Amino acid sequence: MTRQPTVPRTMVISTVVLAVLLLASLVWAESPPGVETVGYTVAGGDTLWSIATDVSEPGADVRIVISQIRHINDLDNSIIRPGDLLLIPAG
Q1: Which overall architecture, per CATH, does domain 9-89 show?
Q2: 11-69 tens-digit pLDDT
Q3: How much is the pLDDT for 27?
C-alpha cells in the first residue's frame, strides 16, 4: 500500500493566514481623507454605476462616487466581477 503525499499543516495554516491578511489589507486600505468606507462584495449584475448610485446622496453626481471607488480600490478601469471585494464610501 502506497501512502499519498500530504501537505504539512504549517503550510496550510500559513496559506490561510496569508489569505486573511490580504483580505484585511483591502478592508483597511487607505481611503481619501474624510471618506469613511465599508467593505462590499460584488454580486452578479453589479456595475460601478449601480453600486455608486446606491451609496450616493440624492442629486449627487454618481460619476464622482465612481471615481472615488476606483481610487480607493486602485482600479485601472471599471471592470468588476462577482466576488470582488471593494471598499466603497459609507452611505
Answers
A1: Roll (3.10)
A2: 777 776 666 556 555 545 555 566 789 999 999 999 999 999 999 999 999 999 999 99
A3: 47
Rounded to two decimals, the pTM is 0.62
CA distance readout (Å), 75 to 5, 44, 47, 54, 89: 40, 19, 13, 19, 15
Q: CA-to-CA distance for 87 and 29, rounded, in angstroms?
A: 8
CA distances from 58 to 29, 39, 53, 85, 91 (A): 27, 22, 9, 25, 11
**Do the Cβ atoms of 48 and 66 come closer than 8 Å?**
yes
Three-state helix/strand/coil letters over 63-88:
HHHHHHHHHHCCCCCCCCCCCCEEEE
Instruction: Please state the domain extents for the chain.
Output: 9-89
